[in-house]
């Protein structure tokens, strides 16, 4: 399963990356995920904490009778954790037929990113992994980091399956 995701991210030509992305903010940075992975966007609701899980796994929610784990993307990316605001929301994504909530600071918009506006991800050297970055979208004067949400959440998928069952 992890090999399939790795191949998808590494084998992605920039042509394949063109398409619609849900863009969102974490702090001052803008990110995008492929719209086809997004199932719904909901406001922050009561999140039940689970003991003995990584700190970035905020807990679980009950969404219309379905138990969904919620990953705090700020914590996952080792960014400072902040208080939830009115703009904080949960993007429910489907990764390998598993639903996972991703906590973000703010949804921006859905963008149609053209091939000519996508650059390959930068190389940071051997000590910093950028495997989860599909590419860099250049939109007007801003930059959107295009994430492979499967790669970001690959370690959490089996944990999510255990929680959901």
From TrEMBL:
<dbReference type="GO" id="GO:0005829">
    <property type="term" value="C:cytosol"/>
</dbReference>
<dbReference type="GO" id="GO:0007165">
    <property type="term" value="P:signal transduction"/>
</dbReference>
<dbReference type="Pfam" id="PF01584">
    <property type="entry name" value="CheW"/>
</dbReference>
<dbReference type="InterPro" id="IPR002545">
    <property type="entry name" value="CheW-lke_dom"/>
</dbReference>
<feature type="domain" description="CheW-like">
    <location>
        <begin position="18"/>
        <end position="158"/>
    </location>
</feature>
<protein>
    <submittedName>
        <fullName>Positive regulator of CheA protein activity (CheW)</fullName>
    </submittedName>
</protein>
<dbReference type="InterPro" id="IPR039315">
    <property type="entry name" value="CheW"/>
</dbReference>
<dbReference type="InterPro" id="IPR036061">
    <property type="entry name" value="CheW-like_dom_sf"/>
</dbReference>
<dbReference type="GO" id="GO:0006935">
    <property type="term" value="P:chemotaxis"/>
</dbReference>
């Amino acid at each position: 399963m992890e090999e399939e995701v790795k191949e998808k991210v590494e084998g992605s030509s920039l042509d394949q990356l063109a398409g619609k992305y849900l863009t969102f903010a974490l702090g001052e940075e803008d990110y995008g995920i492929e719209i086809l992975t997004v199932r719904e966007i909901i406001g922050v609701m009561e999140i039940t904490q689970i003991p003995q899980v990584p700190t970035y796994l905020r807990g679980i929610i009950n969404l219309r009778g379905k138990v969904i784990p919620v990953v705090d993307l700020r914590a996952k990316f080792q960014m400072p954790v902040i208080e939830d605001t009115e703009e904080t929301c949960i993007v429910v994504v489907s990764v390998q037929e598993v639903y996972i909530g991703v906590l973000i600071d703010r949804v921006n918009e859905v963008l149609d990113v053209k091939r000519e506006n996508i650059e390959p991800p930068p190389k940071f050297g051997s000590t910093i992994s950028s495997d989860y970055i599909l590419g860099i979208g250049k939109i007007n004067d801003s930059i959107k980091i295009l994430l492979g949400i499967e790669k970001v959440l690959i370690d959490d998928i089996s944990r999510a399956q255990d929680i959901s069952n």
